[in-house]
Amino acid sequence: MAERFHVLSQLEHLQSKYVGTGHSDMNRWDWVTNHHRDSYASYIGHPDVLSLMAVCENESRTRIKFNFLQRMISPCGPPPEKNPLDD
Amino acid sequence: MHLYNLTLQKPTAINQAVHGSFAGTRQQEICVGRGKVLELLRPDPNTGKVHTLVSHEVFGIIRSLLAFRLTGGTKDYIVVGSDAGRIVVLEYNPTKNCFERVHQETFGKTGCRRVIPGQYLAVDPKGRAILIGASEKQKLVYIMNRDAAANLTISSPLEAHKGYSICFSVVGIDVGFENPTFACLEVDYEDVDNDPTGEAMKKVQQTLTFYELDLGLNHVVRKYAEPLDEMGNNLISVPGGQDGPSGVIVCCENYLIYKNLGDQPDIRCPIPRRRNDLDDPERGMLIVCSATHKTKSMFFFLVQSEQGDIFKITLETDEDIVTEMKIKYFDTVPPANAMCILKTGFLFIASEFGNHYLYQIARLGDDDDEPEFSSRMPLEEGETFFFAPRPLQNLSLVDELESLAPVLASHVGDLANEDAPQIYAACGRGPRSSVKVLRHGLEVTEMAVSELPGNPNAVWTVRRSVDDEYDAHIVVSFVNATLVLSIGETVEEVTDSGFLGTTPTLACSLIGDDALLQIYPDGIRHIRSDRRVNEWKAPGKRSIVKCAINQRQVAIALSGGEIVYFELDATGQLNEYTERKELSSEVVCMGLSEVPQGELRARFLAVGLADRTVRIISLDPQDCLAPLSMQALPADSESLAIVEMGGDETTGSALFLNIGLQNGVLLRTVLDHLTGDLSDTRTRYLGTRPVKLFKVKMQGKNALLATSSRAWLLYFYQNRFHLTPLSYDTLEYAAGFASEQCPEGVVAIAANTLRILALEKLGAVFNQMTHPLTRTPRRMIVHQQSGNVILIETDHNAYTDETKQQRRQQMAEEMVELAGEDEQELAAEMAAQFLQENLSEKEFNAPRAAYGMWASVVRLMNPVNGNKLQDFPLPQNEAAFCVAIVTFANQPDAQFVLVGAANRLKLRPRQCSGGYVYTFLLSTQGDHMDLIHK
């Protein structure tokens, strides 16, 4: 099975299946955004970490979860301008 | 080297709670997820106390729980979404008292990942399909069905993925028997990620998306997506089909919106706010959790806001179209992670932080004076509904489940000068914080204490007949007499029980069906039910030194190491066995096991001898009084007990020989049913005094009470043996006790008093004592000499007491100003009233200030008795974070407390405008602090 796919298409398949998989030419914004999104998802997924954040900020857990989900949309601001020389 | 850990106390926080009839009976249970422990709780419908039926550690993280029932089924199943990358369907088996795994389907990698499902669970109300979703992208739908043998079947997963979309909440919509539909709040960020100008981010909208599972074509379709104006955080499914209009309520910030597919117009209703709230007015209000109650005739929702206020929501319908949404203030309880309304009228609140509560819904809030707000009421822009919070009216507290969450600081030490250290845990959040003192030991309820003449040395309880439920007499033995007391309305002495009162008693009990037996040093007295007395006298100059009795057999030891054995025959006559056993040394203690069910005699007699051995002697008719096995002991024995404990109907229980030694050690050995061999000895040090053993009954099962310098209880609970000390005085002798007021108690003697005790909270390893605090504790340090504790408490988003007063003044003045000319007086009155009233923060939550405002207190308190010795509040926006006791080189005698505080700290990004170090001089007794400088 492996011989049928080129390495690049295998990587693309992985990338489409597991969001956030990177490659060597990934730019900094991509990497950091995925990093942030994964972190927020982890904070929401681990209930004790969410409780810790709720106690630190003295807010309800629902409010913290809501804030994190909203911040997941654009955690690091807009992406950099696409240089037409890339790709 | 092996790393070994022992969990002393399981997690007490509850993250998810669902209710359902998991046992298949009419009673409902609550299944709770406590992080990595899955528990099933049942509130007793009569007493209202919550009992834990089963507690199972899953060694993973439970992220979501759901209960569902197939149409026409009798019991609910539990679906667990966890970090294991699998969906698990569990069934509760009430006979084995455990969870059974019905299905386990793997779909992804382990871990709390962004795209791997496990975070959200939703079910079609008819139980046909389950959706398990992730925070982003992936959603899988499983179809549940029944096969020919009525077993639950699960299908292969159907994908409903949508790339680049973050999911906020999922719920199953009640569509009757049409294709199952799920509603989801999603945000699509693909445009945001591709737009370098940042415009897309400003315009991004959340959508309410409906996914339909086409049962015929077997795939999931994204049916309809509607953009919402505001971001919502929660979805509530409205009953549909025959019972209601169907549809979904979207909980947004500050608003509740009812939506449905088709012609239904949106019905909006704002979430009422508290009148004259000290909260920062910029803050929005979110709905934290919700619960639905549905009966044949009506349904309603209870939703809870961030501040803990519960509102009741009802929908008015006009032929399947909802025309109005009515919202009404119900009551205020601590903010919860989950609410469950049970059919028996109980409301279970699984608090976010702090103790969990079970309330009885006393009234439905239909006929009171509380104003009801409606979506039809016209409101201007920026206006909302206001209500006045009040103490509980519709709910009444029934039970409280202790919870230590969150523990912020703790100290293990013996500050109370007891022989065992205590754990001081500073836990809680905001106004519900406290310092909890945990002591290892079972809580003992003292039911009665009575003085006795002289110092007794033993006590027993006796029933009149084997069918009696409760004990009839308490027999107390003194050095030269025996006192018989009757148990009834009052405890009185009786003289006509048939027992001999002029001699000390070695043992007494019920024998056969209705005869009493008393063994005293000179002989044995057998009192038949018709008051005939048979006496057996000890031969010659010998006296009976030790004895053992069970329902049909008696074994006594005469001085000189001789054992005489008696057995009750079919006519109720006590017959002496022809032979007597001579032993090589004096008998120190004896024990007989209970006669097993359906048999005539117990097989084993255990005898402890002065030569530091314990011998097992057979009482089988073929080899009566023949020795079977022997165990050598490290010290002299003091008492013996053979108890059948452990196991349940299927695995069977084992016979244990428990030996209490004079050096305070308890040995527990397995006694083989058939051969009488002794194996697998466990040792435990109990205390400084010789260990005496007494058989009692706890929760209908055999248990052992061992007295030493402290009393311990060995019992089998939740499939495990527990040996826990009792938090009580030293006891000298004890016996099981059953009466109407106290069906499973213990009667014991301590010095010259007779005490009747009840042990209720079995399974709780620690008993807690709580001392309340006002703000979230951060650090705790102990002043060693005095045993006092210095705490710093800090809250973000909070007002100090001073600021609160100021704000109230301000608001009162505004009230007067805003009122027109002719209403000045009325307004002044209202303002004065407002200044007077003070909502208890513990119940109604502290007012939340703006972001970046802090309130802090340094407190000196005595943790043992909870006295707050001194409070030192810090000014607004200064937050204390660390504390230490130091001595300086140039003042070696004085102890100073240094508290580090940050000024105007902003959490994100972390910056502050400065810091302060407060120095306090601690007095030598440690009960007073003086501020030196800042």
TrEMBL record, chain A:
Listed Pfam families: SF3b10 (PF07189)
GO cellular component terms, A-Z: precatalytic spliceosome; U2 snRNP
A GO biological-process term: mRNA splicing, via spliceosome
Main location, first listed in the record: nucleus
Record's keyword terms, sorted: mRNA processing, mRNA splicing, Nucleus, Spliceosome
Superkingdom, natural source: Eukaryota
Subcellular location as annotated: Nucleus
Nucleus recorded as keyword: yes
InterPro entries given in the database record: SF3b5/RDS3-10, Splicing_factor_3B_subunit_5
Family statement: Belongs to the SF3B5 family.
PANTHER family from the UniProt entry: SPLICING FACTOR 3B SUBUNIT 5 (PTHR20978:SF0)
Protein name as catalogued: Splicing factor 3B subunit 5
Protein's organism: Plectus sambesii
UniProtKB/TrEMBL annotation, chain B:
Ranges of residues in domain RSE1/DDB1/CPSF1 first beta-propeller: 13-401
GO molecular function per UniProt: nucleic acid binding
Localization annotation: Nucleus
Sequence ranges assigned to domain RSE1/DDB1/CPSF1 second beta-propeller in this UniProt record: 445-758
Protein name: Splicing factor 3b subunit 3
Pfam annotation, one family: Beta-prop_RSE1_1st
Keyword Glycoprotein: no
Family, as annotated: Belongs to the RSE1 family.
Biological classification of the source: Eukaryota, Metazoa, Ecdysozoa, Nematoda, Chromadorea
Gene3D superfamilies: YVTN repeat-like/Quinoprotein amine dehydrogenase
Annotated keywords: mRNA processing, mRNA splicing, Nucleus, Spliceosome
Domain spans labelled RSE1/DDB1/CPSF1 C-terminal: 855-933
GO cellular component: spliceosomal complex
Any GO BP annotation: RNA splicing
